[in-house]
Each structure stands twice: as C-alpha cells, then as structure tokens.
Amino acid sequence: MKVVTGATDGIGRSYALDLARRGFNIFLISRTKSKLVKTKKQILNKYSDIEVRYAICDFTRVSYEDYKRLLHSLNEVDIGILINNVGMCFDNPEVLHRVEGGIDTLTNVINVNILPVTLLTAGILPQMMARKSGIIVNIGSAAGSIHMAKWSVYSATKKYIEWFTSILQKEYENEGIICQTITPLLVSTNMIKNPLSSIFCPNSDSFAKSSLNTIGNSSSTTGYITHQIQFELIKFVPEIIIDLFVKNLNNQLLDYQLDKKRV
Questions:
Q1: How many domains does the chain have?
Q2: Residue 232 to residue 90: CA distance in whole angstroms
Q3: Residue 198 phi/psi, 5° resolution?
Q4: pLDDT tens per residue across span 177-208
Q5: What CATH number does the domain containing 223 carry?
Q6: What share of the chain is helix, strand, coil (3-state, %, to 5)?
Q7: Which InterPro entries match?
Q8: Which residue range forms the structural domain that includes residue 95?
Q9: Strand 2-5 relative to strand 81-84, pairing
Q10: What is the residue-averaged pLDDT of the chain?
Q11: Which of 36, 55, 177, 263 is 20 to 30 Å apart from 248, CA to CA?
C-alpha cells in the first residue's frame, strides 16, 4: 500500500493517480470526505484492478488521539511508500506580525507542515524496519533553501523537512529504507494561486510523474528537470539578487490576488 497525505488536490492527488497508474494500491489521507470519495472514484474508474483506502484527517485540528487512530489504521496494512505531501502556506506574502489570520494561521502552518511528516514517519518506520524495506518521500520546497522575506514561517517549516529528512537518511541508511526530500520550485497548484503552467512551472501531473521517477536515484532533488536547472543556477546568484527576485514574486502574487478580487 502506498500512502499519500494531502491526496485530494494538487501534487498529492497527482501522486496518487500516478502511483495507481503504476499498479500500486493507494491509501489516501485528506481532510474532506467528499473529496476523498471523489478521488477514490476517479482512481478506480481508471484503474479498477487496484485497492484504494482513505482516512479523513484535518491536520490543522488533529489531536494526539487522532494521530494514534490514524497510525493504527495505517499499520493494519503493509506500507511500501509514504509520501508526506500535505502542506499549508499563507494566502498572501506578508511580514510576520501582519500575516492574515495572525497566530491562528501561523499555528496551522506549523502544525500542518511539521507534525504530520514527523509523526507519521515515526509511526510507520517500525513496520518498514521489520521488513528491511520502505520508501519515505517528504515534500519540501525550494523555499526552504532561500531566505524568503514575507514567507518566514512557511520557508522555515520547509527547511525543517529538508533537515529532518537528511538526518533520517543517516539514521536508516543501513536498514533498507530510502528517505528522499523533494524540493520543488513553482508548480501550478491552488497553493501558489497560479493556475498557469509553463516549462518552468509544470502542472501537478507532470511534476508528480517526474519526481516519482527520481526515487532511488537521488536523496534530495527538486523532482523536475527545469526546476533542478534553476535550483543549481540559484547557488551562484548573490543573495541581493535573490532578494529582488523574491520581492518581484511577492508583487506578482499580490497583483494576481487583486485581479481575482476584481473579477
């Protein structure tokens, strides 16, 4: 069974569909039952010879007991791949004390971006250890490698994922378990509020297919060739230039939001 969190939208949904295309049984985790039912139906309509299970979990509201119940359900099956995809971002770029929603939003971003990847990984590793086999894919972001003004908490939580996974690689390198970080740049999803795909901003289906092909070949990758090219080039760019790029990106996102409100 292959587990995908945040599995009913964007990259997560695309991961689930592509894993199903490859013939794997899927365990979907998301917060909205209607979307889970719809995604399960869509998968089975295309790939009727696989099994699809799901669990409802809102990671902004989940309690310790909720995590225990979820892990109990997950450990009832053999899990070959865990894709920790669920994530949350601010609606708009803003300095820390002015983030829309205030402390509630900041708490949600921290809870969604850090706790699931940590606790689900810890809860599923024992069965992978027993089999000496398993794959854990943690979805971060290139935002975790750049000091992104007006995205402070989001960027920091993505850095956590990168650091966390690199340590797991050291801890489990002799246990038959692959731990991989995916750090994409812009992907056309609802999270980034940008519906337009391009060669440098692929749609989620193209991205998921590409990134799944990197498993076992790279411990840390952007998951997509044009993203990797950009990421390697960024290493040679002075930080002052990167800051200007981030500022321009923030302005574009704000303009996009304003245009949506005018429609």
A1: 1
A2: 26
A3: -160, -175
A4: 999 999 999 888 765 555 556 777 899 999 99
A5: 3.40.50.720
A6: 50, 15, 35
A7: NAD(P)-bd_dom_sf, Sc_DH/Rdtase_CS, SDR_fam
A8: 2-262
A9: parallel
A10: 94
A11: 263
